[in-house]
Write a structure and sequence with these properties.
It is a single chain. By secondary structure, the protein is α+β, with helices and mostly antiparallel strands. It has a domain at 180-381: FAD-linked oxidases, C-terminal domain (Vanillyl-alcohol Oxidase, Chain A, domain 3), CATH 3.40.462. It is built from 14 helices and 20 strands. 32% of the residues lie in helices and 25% in strands.
Length: 428
């Protein structure tokens, strides 16, 4: 059986079976077969995750054949969508009905179910993560039975479940009318930006920053929501900004930094001197997403909103003090709290801080240092990114942890959906 690997190539497995489901009955058959064989079943999406939640030596199930919008109502905003559709395909499919997702992250290669199950988010202090707009769901539980969820604790558990409750086949999403975005990126001093962070976050529909270690420069991204009749930025200009400035230049500097780690601080400062202002206007689903050609691994933590500024300042100081060679920026984003039981933003407005390392460069000590710092703020890991937490360390950070475990016991008593990663973070 061919080996599977994720996008960056640092998670791999050799499953005994690989199955592509093209119907809900295919999913039922795969789950029942895995249960009868006594092996685990994990669902794989686009592989754009850095966690250990996918690898299995049992059954690896793809939902690529479940990739359609089944129904969409422009008046109510409700859309019934199959779980295997990618965000890239979902955007234009919803737009055809005059609808859009309320918010979105900066990667659209993910499948919808994969993005939901790991708590994927965008940025914007008034907007929650993607899973908060799920109002109904169909899934196949660990016994191979189809379960319909329309509310209550079970839906709150299933919206961000790490794939530990079952295989999602269909979702009902609450959407909003189609809209556009007007985005401006420009370099700013880090210290001045952090000093007025609260005002910047409150003053824009979507705000984020990319703080480059070993410099005093951050790329600030301010985005406002506009009408669906937005005049789009010429495609050639948008592609030049994305492919040349955001990918080719970063990739070139990263390769040099991997070969000469001591040069990373100088490389970062040089790269920031080359940075310039950029603009992008278009329909929202086209502006949210960025093409990522430079491969990396990533860790991201959800921190209480009030601690965001201090945590970012301290993390940058630690990288400078320990002379950590990292050429990627810290990505800082903001979301509203939600009520999904295992959402990293559960019950609190949140500042997300992500750190990256170029593929092939050592990241273990760097990530461990930052992870320890973020833990001191009560940080919760993004489920799709790297972390070293266990059920024992995570349980105190989630007020309704035991509620989730009780629901898991009902949905998957035989632990059909448990691999090593799931057992590490949820226990067994």
């Amino acid at each position: 059986m061919p080996e599977w690997s994720n996008w960056t190539g640092d998670r791999r497995c050799s499953p005994r079976e690989r199955v592509v489901a093209r119907s809900e009955s295919d999913v039922v058959d795969a789950v029942r077969r895995a249960r009868s064989l006594g092996v685990s079943l994990r669902v794989v999406g686009a592989g754009h995750s850095f966690s250990d939640l996918v690898p299995t030596d049992g059954v690896l199930l793809s939902l690529d054949g479940l990739d359609r919008v089944l129904d969409a109502d422009g008046s109510s905003g409700l859309a019934r969508v199959q779980a295997g559709i990618t965000l890239h395909a979902l955007g234009p499919a919803l737009a055809a009905h005059g609808l859009a997702l309320e918010n979105q992250g900066d990667i659209d290669a993910q499948t919808l179910a994969g993005a939901l199950m790991t708590g994927t988010h965008g940025t914007g202090a008034r907007f929650r993560n993607l899973s908060a707009n799920v109002v109904g769901m169909r899934l196949v539980d660990g016994r191979g039975e189809v379960v319909v969820l329309e509310g209550g604790d079970e839906l709150r558990a299933a919206r961000v479940s790490l794939g530990a409750l079952g295989v999602v086949t269909e979702l009902e999403m609450q959407c909003v009318p189609l809209y556009g975005l007007d985005r401006v990126d420009e370099p700013q001093p880090i210290d001045a930006t952090l000093a007025q962070l609260d005002e910047l976050v409150a003053g824009h529909d979507h705000f984020e920053l990319f703080a480059f270690p070993h410099t005093n420069t951050t790329m600030v991204r301010r985005t406002e929501r506009v009408g669906a009749d937005v005049a789009a930025t010429p495609l050639w200009r948008a592609k030049f900004q994305e492919e040349v400035l955001e990918n080719a230049v970063l990739g070139g500097f990263s390769r040099v930094g991997r070969r000469f780690p001591r040069a990373v601080p100088t490389l970062n400062r040089t790269m920031m001197r080359l940075a310039s202002r950029g603009e992008r206007r278009d329909l929202a689903y086209r502006v949210y997403a960025s093409h990522r050609a430079v491969r990396f691994t990533e860790m991201e933590y959800a921190l209480p909103r009030a601690d965001g500024r201090g945590a970012v300042q301290r993390a940058l100081e630690v990288v400078a003090e320990e002379r950590i060679a990292t050429g990627f920026p810290f990505e800082v984003r903001f979301v509203a709290g939600d009520d999904a039981l295992l959402s990293p933003a559960h019950g609190r407005d949140t500042c997300y801080v992500a750190v990256h390392q170029y593929r092939g460069m050592p990241f273990e000590d760097f990530f461990a240092t930052i992870e320890q710092l973020f833990a001191s703020y009560g940080g919760r890991p993004h489920w799709g990114k790297r972390n070293t937490q266990t059920a024992a360390t995570l349980a105190p950070r989630y007020p309704e942890w035991d509620t989730f475990l009780a629901i898991r016991e009902r949905f998957d008593p035989d632990r059909v959906f448990a691999n090593d990663g799931v057992r590490r973070v949820l226990g067994d």
